[in-house]
Amino acid sequence: MAARSALPATGPGPEAAGTAAGDPRRWLILAVIAAAQLMVVLDLTVMNLALPSAQRALNFTAADRQWVVTAYALSFGSLLLFCGRLADLIGRKVTFLTGLVGFAAASAVGGASVDFSMLVTARVCQGVFGALLAPSALSLLATTFKDPKERAKAFGVYGAVAAAGGGLGLLLGGALTSYLSWRWCMYVNLVFAATAITGGALLLGRQHRTPGGRLDVPGVVAVSGGMLCLVYGFSNAATHSWHTPSTWSFLVVGVALLIAFAAWQSRTAHPLLPPRVVLDRNRAGAYLTVLISGAGTFGVFLFLIYYMQVTLGYSAVVSGLAMLPMVALSGTVANLGNIRLMPRIGPKPMVIAGMLLNAAGMVWLTRIGVHSGYASALLGPLMVTGAGMGLIFGMMAATGTFGVAPYDAGVASASINTGQQLGGSIGTALLNTVAASAAAGYLADHSYGRPTPRLVQLAAIHSYTTVFWWCAGIFAAGAVICGALLRPGPLTRPGDATVREPSERATAAR
């Protein structure tokens, strides 16, 4: 017979007591968490615009360039669930501060890199400590704010940071690279980390470990290995081919390990990812929404930047400024959506509307041409897409952690980040393959002899518009699938029996 998951008999646990709803420090704690989260989100994109300069400075090849991004994704994505459960077991203040210190140290080493191997090693370490930091930050937020109205405001701020951080990373990366050096795309993390470390050490109360908790070592090995294989397989497909053994073999092994992990979680007494966390429809819908949205959003950032810089001739700084309307609107809508819409209508309508707005923005972007103007071809779809992203990010964090007991907050938070990371990896591989095939097909159909520069430009435009059509399809499918999974109506309040774990109900009955 399958062993039942062991649940502590202490109800919400001691961590809730340290951060009462009336604690006057809670808004300062929110500022610390937001600074830490912004640092992690920025780092997902800030290095993209610095890569050409780093390549020239350190003299590494174009084939090696992908590893500056992939090294971070591999370590970050494969360790998220492990680090999320670790935060639950040993205390979130410890993992939060350790993640900040380690991330800052790795950033300093990366900025001072003298060769390619040193830079890649620093990026791996950034991913490791980012995986420790990200779920700790979100779970601290989930356990700090108890009042529903204040909780909505706090998650609104968090959602705004998550929604706008990627675009801000592009803007900041372009400015730092253009006016200072690519190394400052790494050094800038020290500013955020110093602020968050100081605030976290002074403001966060003692976080006790989960009573009776144990680390699921087989689960750690299976899920970390599975995520590592999947992220590597998708990354390899983006630069090579789906048919190479280094792509499909890793994908097959990754899927097999994740299937084994899922089967093991229902049998072990101390699961790494307790089934009670993911079997709730709203939480599962939030995780799936993050994954699908991450896959589709990749087309907005990467291929739109390609279009603006390669085809329209925008500089890195101008490209970042061109993204500002989307960044500003996504952050504003995320904040308002969490405060105003979530308590009234719940996550389901927000996800459906957000996905459909993103799909509409992608369809609008298919009208771009070689000489399109910013106001006529880009501003409108960027604003529509920004509103859609804001609605999605406005519900993501609150829904993905709603109703979990404090001793599961870390792994629930990690599940959100895992979905985002895996979605981005899938989007990278899929959309890069689609773009390359579309460009090659266009040249084969329209060239007679050596392609002219004009024809190469048209082939690039065709590849971008094809990607945007695919993104529109991804978002439209997300509206249907995620909309069907999420429950209608507002989220049930934490005090209702429907969101209590069995041990909590027993404690309340006594």
From TrEMBL:
The keyword Cell membrane applies. It is a multi-pass membrane protein. Its main location: membrane. Residues 1-20 are annotated as: Disordered. This is MFS transporter. It is found in: Cell membrane. The keyword ATP-binding does not apply. Residues 29-490 form the Major facilitator superfamily (MFS) profile domain. It comes from the Bacteria. PROSITE patterns: MFS. The chain crosses the membrane at residues 27-47, 67-87, 94-114, 120-143, 155-180, 186-205, 217-235, 247-264, 285-308, 314-337, 349-370, 382-405, 426-444, 464-486. Keywords: Cell membrane, Membrane, Transmembrane, Transmembrane helix, Transport. Pfam families: MFS_1.
